[in-house]
Specification:
Radius of gyration: 26 Å
Helix content: 10-25%
Subcellular location: Cell outer membrane
Strand order of the largest sheet: 24-31-30-27-28-25
Number of helices: 12
Shape: globular
InterPro entries: 6-blade_b-propeller_TolB-like (IPR011042), Bact_OuterMem_StrucFunc (IPR050330), OMP_bac (IPR006664), OmpA-like (IPR006665), OmpA-like_sf (IPR036737), TPR-like_helical_dom_sf (IPR011990), WD40 (IPR011659)
Strand content: 25-35%
Protein name: OmpA family protein
Main location: membrane
Keywords: Cell outer membrane, Membrane
Largest sheet: 6 strands, antiparallel
């Protein structure tokens, strides 16, 4: 018991389980609780229910959050009625965490709908040669079906395993009869010391796209020459960015389009799917976001374009899923992508499902998923799509379309952001989506019309604040600015103001505000023809830089410069994004003390701009989102982030904004922009407050 407790307190739940289970059957409620709780952090989450229920029956107060954990356990065991019962009890007792539980209840509705009408498909583990106790993912099978390329962090080096330095490598396995043969590392030209991963394989099997952990993560290409793979070459700057993450990619069968995932500015969420076309010179052109039909405020990743060139598969935690990333399908029709369709159960599960690829006849697919019958961590599975049992596609939907999805719960489960689930039979035929009125009786399955307010919402392409329409103004520079400039105790910010989509230069009004006094010390106009500007920022203060142009989002930057800072020049582009309902923007000049939720004085100018926005645009309804880094207790971070967002809302309401037009939501540490591994800069970026435009009623 003591050994198990030591592991449990270190959150080493696998070893804690081994110790606890060695004690044999017991009626001790505290031990049963710890066993059940530990199972929730393994691939065998469904086993948690029996232990947690036993603990609950013997001692209902065994843990304050026992109902929440029981809900999770039953949800993972597909016992949705019991899961919902415990989630609702937890929500009743924890009013402040109602949003967290509402999302879990919503996931139960989705899971219940999907599992009641499973698609006709056979799901099989790819076998013990390909899969191991480690992670295996991104299976790429050649057109003839005889070779598989995949990625794994398998290792027999105990030191690397314990230290977490068993980095991912790419493996290749031949087909031996009906099974996969022993894999080997693909090539010393490809596998490097740190993480490298397979992204996609061309139709002819001779071009391999790779992910390398270089910079923030880039896409590279290798070709097979004389039986070996060439040294990978990075794709051009239209694909790879120096500061952002490109995670996966695939090329269309004709070689003319590249689909890839990136969290670069200009996206609509975290990871988005983008497309680039090959130009006349054989170079990849400017990437274009696939738009709000495909991309959500969550993550869209691992795109796979079918050889037909019009069917796109991808993984998402932003579209309605069973609890984590599910696999979705969309088709290009008349130049537009159709609403993504969830591939359904049993292809998708409550756990992660992604890196899906499928044969040309759409009958056999491979993907990576976490399953209770797996060999360890994520495994590679084969799915065989069988003829539909129904003559017509069946469309299912949640019977609670008005539930506003919430943020991720404390226990590791991603979020759901839309209340409508559409399930199609396996992609042997083109699915048909038919909008029908809501029907109150469960059978037959019905489609609930998708609420307008639940459409995916884009996320900041750059630090932005509000929708305004500023005219060109008379320029003003405080005399003290010139004095600081002559003394060279300034930072010169210069560059261009450009349109995010077209890169066209823009004329805009750029203001420099002293956040401590609220005084505007500089106001200039960028050149309307070239977009050029130059702004002098004095050292020794906290300053906000705001850029405004009619029809565009308000762009905000913060400079907190010590008096002893060296003279510097910063060349940059201020990227302006056209104002669209659903935008999420970071409020760069809203500040809180560590662990506190009260607005600091320096925040007033920025919050006043929000008030001005809502006053001048009475048709807008917005939400203030709070985020923290990953330090400290996850539940406390949730509460703190919500309190911080609420502080902004309280200010707005107290200063004349109707409470029906502004709300608050706290996400804690569950939606980082960058990795929290960078303990100073990374965590500082992730601690942020956002404004999200929910509705535009007549605007």
């Amino acid at each position: 018991m003591e050994k198990g407790d030591r592991y449990f307190n270190k959150k080493d739940y696998a070893n804690a389980l081994d110790a606890y289970l060695s004690l044999g059957n017991t009626d001790d409620p505290d031990l049963n609780y710890k066993i059940g709780y530990s199972y929730l952090f393994t691939e065998k989450k469904s086993r948690a229910a029996a232990y947690l229920e036993k603990a609950y029956q013997a001692k209902p107060t065994v843990d304050p959050d026992i109902d929440y954990y029981l809900g999770m356990a039953y949800q993972n065991d597909h016992k949705y009625a019991k899961a919902r019962e415990h989630y609702e009890e937890f929500r009743r007792k924890n009013k402040k965490l109602a949003e967290l539980t509402t999302e879990k209840i919503f996931e139960c509705e989705i899971g219940d709908s999907l599992t009641r009408k499973p698609i006709n498909a056979l799901i099989e583990n790819a076998g013990g040669e390909v899969n191991s106790a480690f992670h295996e993912y991104s299976p790429l099978v050649t057109g003839d079906g005889n070779t598989m390329i995949f990625t794994s962090n398998r290792s027999d080096d105990d030191y690397k395993i314990k230290s977490g330095t068993n980095f991912e490598d790419i493996y290749i396995s031949p087909k031996v009869g009906e099974n996969w043969g022993p894999p080997k590392k693909i090539s010393p030209n490809i596998n490097i010391k740190f993480n490298d991963a397979a992204a996609s394989l061309s139709a002819d099997g001779n071009t391999l796209l790779l992910y390398y952990e270089e910079g923030a993560g880039d896409i590279l290409m290798s070709t097979r020459e004389n039986g070996d793979w060439s040294k990978p070459v990075p794709l051009n700057k239209n694909i790879n960015t120096p500061m952002f993450w490109e995670t996966s990619a695939c090329i269309s069968a004709d070689g003319k389009k590249l689909f890839f995932a990136s969290n670069r500015p200009g996206g609509r969420g975290e990871l988005d799917i983008w497309v680039s076309e090959l130009d006349a010179k054989g170079q990849w052109g400017k990437a274009v976001n696939l738009g709000p039909t495909i991309n959500t405020p969550g993550n869209e990743d691992s795109p796979y374009i079918h050889p037909d060139g019009v069917t796109l598969y991808f993984s998402s935690d932003g579209h309605p899923s069973m609890g984590s990333n599910d696999i979705f399908m969309t088709e290009l029709k008349n130049g537009k992508w159709t609403r993504p369709v969830n591939l359904g159960y049993p292809v998708n599960s409550i756990e992660y499902d992604g890196f899906f690829s499928i044969s040309a006849d759409k009958k056999t697919g491979y993907y990576s998923t976490l399953r209770a019958d797996g060999l360890g961590s994520a495994d590679i599975y084969k799915v065989t799509f069988l003829p539909p049992k129904e003559e017509k596609p069946i469309l299912l939907a949640s019977n609670e379309p008005q539930v506003q999805p919430a943020v991720q719960p404390v226990v590791e489960q991603p979020k759901v952001t839309e209340p409508v689930v559409v399930v199609t039979p396996p992609p042997v035929e083109v699915p048909v989506v038919v909008e029908t009125p809501t029907v109150e009786t469960p059978p037959p399955p019905v489609v609930v019309e998708e609420p307008k307010k639940e459409e995916p919402k884009p996320v900041e392409p750059a630090p932005v604040v509000a929708v305004v329409e500023p005219p060109k103004v008379e320029e003003y520079i405080d005399p003290s600015i010139q004095q600081s400039k002559e003394a060279k105790v300034v930072t010169i910010l210069k560059g261009k103001v450009i349109d995010e989509t077209t890169a066209k230069p823009l004329g805009a009004v750029i203001s420099l505000v002293n956040n401590e006094t609220g005084k505007v010390v500089t106001r200039i106009n960028s050149n309307a023809e070239t977009g050029d500007f130059e702004l002098t920022i004095p050292h020794g203060g906290n300053y906000g830089v705001s850029t405004e142009r009619s029809g565009y989002l308000f762009n905000s930057i913060n400079f907190n410069l010590p008096a002893f800072a060296e003279f510097q020049e910063i060349d940059t582009h201020i990227i302006m994004v056209k104002a669209e309902v659903g935008s999420i923007a970071v409020l760069k000049n809203v500040f809180f003390d560590v662990g506190k939720s009260e607005l600091r004085t320096e925040s007033v100018t920025e919050v006043e701009k929000i008030r001005e926005l809502l006053t001048s645009s009475p048709h807008l309804v917005v939400q203030i989102n709070g985020h923290t880094d990953n330090t400290g207790n996850a539940a406390n971070n949730k509460v703190l982030s919500l309190k911080r967002a609420s502080s902004v809302v309280d200010y707005l309401v107290q200063h004349g904004i109707a409470s029906t037009r502004v709300s608050a939501k706290g996400f804690g540490a569950e939606k980082p922009i960058v990795s929290n591994d960078d303990e100073e800069e990374g965590r500082a970026i992730n601690r942020r407050t956002e404004i999200e435009i929910l509705e535009s009623n007549g605007g």
